[in-house]
Amino acid sequence: MTKEVKVEYSTQVKSKKEKSEKWIRLTSNRLLVTGSIILLFVLLIGIFAPILAPYDVLEMNPQNRFVPPSVDHLFGTDNFGRDIFSRVMHGVRLSLVIGFFVTLFSTIIGLIVGLLAAYNKILDHILMRICDGLFAFPSILLAIAITAALGPKTINVVIALVLVFIPSVARIVRSQALVVKEKTFIESLRAQGANPFRILFLHIAPNVMSPLIVQVTYIFAVTILTEASLSFLGAGVPAPEPSLGNLLYDGKLSIYVAWWMTVFPGIFIVLIILGLNLFGDGLRDFLDPKAKQLKKRGIIWKRKNNRY
Amino acid sequence: MEKEKQPLLKINNLKTTFSTYKGELSAVDGVSLELNEGEILGIVGESGCGKSVTAESILQLLDENTTTYDGEIIFNGKNLLKSSNRELEEIRGNEISMIFQDPMSSLNPVITIGKQIAESVRIHQKLSKKESMKKAVELLRLTGIPSPEQRVKEYPHEISGGMRQRVMIAMALSCQPKLLIADEPTTALDVTIQEQILKLMLQFQKELNMGIVLITHDFGVVANYCTKVAVMYLGQVIEETDVKSLFSRPLHPYTVGLINSVPQLDGDRSKELATIKGVVPSLTQIPKGCRFAPRCPLATEKCLEEMPNLESAKENHQVRCWHYEKVLEGELQYVN
């Protein structure tokens, strides 16, 4: 009896220690922390855009054309006298919404495609050749082609971008799933009578998550960039609606008259991309067990130096 | 005529062939085995003798694309080799369970052990999540893990190898199977834990009156736990008998060599440990005659030319050797 108590006690100590170690690793990961703070800032803007925006985004005011940044108009006004601050807030919101849905759907579909490809050899050939085909086009060209075919609507931009990003998710999932598939625990599951779908979606899927999550943050970033480029080229979100790309497009025409029309949307694009990339890099370091060892040693060393 | 009692598992002339780029390799070549309820059959042999492949063939777990099976595997009067995938899924884990060698890698690393045990229950029984979780705790308690309520929330990397093997046993026995296949269940564990795990299996075996196919290369385990033994060499059964006759008088030179090479605690320490010279040949170069002939101390011309059949030397004692009489007469030194 005494032996049992002892065993329990020692494992409890271990788990407590592990938790605090994890927390230290999380908070000492500068990339992750900086990325999270930027993302949180942008996300709050996106969520509260309707409250933050002092003017209606479409309200034109011909008397107030090209007003430079002032107290009334923080970021100035554009060629129609619309408030740029309001338009940028809403632009961030729209870009984030598009980014979110594109990432969500391309991840879900890519996950399913990748898992099926890893499971069945014939399916693998078919699905991966389709993916190769999609890969062969530069992503922006493909997106332009699809939106051109479907017509200029926000939903079509989402569909186009989902199609563009499915292959990159599917590839990562497939390669990871092929590794996991050969592990003994999969054979053990088969020996328990689990059918292929249970094995694929309940056991292999959770095992491919950590590389996938990292990839997803990058896809989010690239989606926002691609959407901005599409809108800038006039193939994205249709005109009066403020997306960050549209704002840049409007600003381009009068860049020598009103620098604020391009600078402020540009700053927010940079912020979102920077935040997402830092977050992704930080997450990769955090999830990678090899980087973990190095980081841990570094932290111990630094802490000692700081304290004593 | 009186109806004979059917054996639980009957393997008839099983041939398992892998197609590789080197050609067709038959890892198991004409194995026939029989197991009744409540019996423990030990399969022994060096690495690469086809023990594990035989076990995996029973449940057909090998890669479907590259493996072909031939022969008959009759479980409870049903030929498993002729069953559909759906039928096999019904049998796997429910009537026949399997425990693997490496407890480190046979659990899913990202799912808690409780959920994994509960799942093994839910695959075959319609239970709610809560009920199956309760059952998981119960099963863990039966396997002797202290404070199972806490353990079910832990991940595989948080528990020791011995405990992981207990979890595997809990999963394997969750549906009270009639047959348990244990593929070197204790090889990766240290000796004290080995004993505990084997005793645990034996305890469940008695309670459920299961048949067990125990694959091992440890003759100590065979002597202590098995009722029957089959010795395998290069995909063939070369000697098959009950435990007592095997240890009192092994008839195949290979078996003699294997038993002789087990170190004895009270043996002469100045003497070098007996070994079998050479290694198991690769499946690409199978000898023409008796497969053991190139390594056999008693080999003659005939051995190199002609393959012996598995024949009854004594009652319940079958051996595949041209010269087993010589062994019987004591031409080979047998230490035990």
From TrEMBL, chain A:
Source taxon at top rank: Bacteria
Which InterPro entries does the UniProt entry name for this protein?
BP-dependent_transpt_permease, MetI-like, MetI-like_sf, OppC_N
Q: Which UniProt keywords apply?
A: Cell membrane, Membrane, Transmembrane, Transmembrane helix, Transport
Give TM regions.
Answer: 31-53, 96-119, 126-149, 155-173, 257-280
- GO cellular-component terms in the record? plasma membrane
How does this protein lie in the membrane? Multi-pass membrane protein
Annotated ABC transmembrane type-1 domain ranges read 92-280
Is Transmembrane helix tagged as a keyword? Answer: yes
For this protein, the record's CDD domains field holds:
TM_PBP2 (cd06261)
Cellular compartment(s): Cell membrane
A GO BP annotation = transmembrane transport
Q: Which family does it belong to?
A: Belongs to the binding-protein-dependent transport system permease family.
Please state what the protein is called: Peptide/nickel transport system permease protein
Automatic annotation (TrEMBL), chain B:
> Could you tell me which PROSITE patterns the record lists for this protein?
ABC_TRANSPORTER_1, ABC_TRANSPORTER_2
Entries under CDD domains matching the protein? ABC_NikE_OppD_transporters
- Looking at the UniProt record for this protein, which Gene Ontology cellular component terms does it annotate, in alphabetical order? plasma membrane
**Which processes are annotated in GO (biological process)?**
peptide transport
Q: Which domain of life is it from?
A: Bacteria
Membrane topology per record: Peripheral membrane protein
The record's similarity note reads: Belongs to the ABC transporter superfamily.
Sorted alphabetically, the keyword list is: ATP-binding, Cell membrane, Membrane, Nucleotide-binding, Transport
User: Pfam families, per this entry?
Assistant: ABC_tran, oligo_HPY
SMART domains annotated for this entry?
A: AAA
GO: which molecular function terms?
Answer: ATP binding; ATP hydrolysis activity
| Compartments where located | Cell membrane
Tell me the protein's name.
Peptide/nickel transport system ATP-binding protein
